């Protein structure tokens, strides 16, 4: 091959390589807007934190990141939507651990169905939360002993939860069994609507994370009477554990995390996991999480995978034993 021909071949190869690189860059992830699905209404911890992550992720990837609320059927409508979505990284789920238990409480044919363990690609465990029992201050109840007495006397007959099959619902049933009471669950479509009725006195008690009720505890309209952890929360150190209040074997925690549809490419998962881990280091994000009473987690995707399996198994047993079922 003469020199002129070699130069032409080299030039052609360089052009092909450049075009190929350009195509690869054009198709680099993400190349279009990303949707984050939240399966509960605005007003709760999940929605609030999802919007924080959406803003930060958008700034990092240079694409719009939009939060969409797809509510209903104890969160399974939105969760199922994501499970069935194209696993291309453009439809993500930001979810509490309701995702791992809600399908277990739905009657056949009454709600969207998915497998929490096998139908999603875990991306990151964002944070963990404590669950509390909060009452309307007008009840006059200031501690767990008073609450149990009120439940046994009929003064308190029900409790609110963010939805059937939620960690809060499960905690309520575990509390009923441990304390020997029979309070009825009133399920809501998320924490936001439940808090409105709690503060207005429509319901007397609510099992909840701290974020949605913090301001009302601070202004005295609500009273925090117990935490469902083995030890007191550093965010509410004056609030005793259920065990300290005489109610043992009623410990339930909560978490928030990102997942996508089953079959997401590993490189996209790594990209998103890396971005979210960096976002979890940002001071303003940490401040917001503290406001919502979330303890940052982060790490590799398998941390979320493990907690989904654990909660699906452990609370699945409780659901079966107590007969929890969505209406």
The sequence of SSEs as H and E is HEHEHEEEHEHEHEHEEHHEH
Structural class of the helix and strand makeup?
Answer: alpha/beta
Distance between the termini: 80 Å
Strand order of the largest sheet: 2-1-3-10-4-11
Radius of gyration: 23 Å
Residue share in helix? 40-55%
Oligomeric nature of the chains: single chain
Query: What count of helical segments does DSSP give?
Result: 10
Strand count, sense and barrel status of the largest sheet are: 6 strands, mixed
Mean pLDDT: 89
- Inertia-based shape: globular
Amount of beta strand: 15-25%
Number of strands: 11
Low-pLDDT stretches: 6-26
Describe the structure.
Helix content is 40%, strand content 19%. Helix 5 (167-179) packs across helix 10. It has a six-stranded mixed sheet, with helices on both faces. With 327 residues, it is an alpha/beta fold.
Give a short summary of the structure.
The chain is built from ten helices and eleven strands. The chain has helices spanning 3-26, 45-61, 76-83, 144-153, 167-179, 191-200, 214-218, 266-279, 283-291, 301-322; strands at 34-38, 65-69, 91-96, 120-130, 132-136, 158-161, 184-187, 205-208, 222-227, 253-261, 294-296.
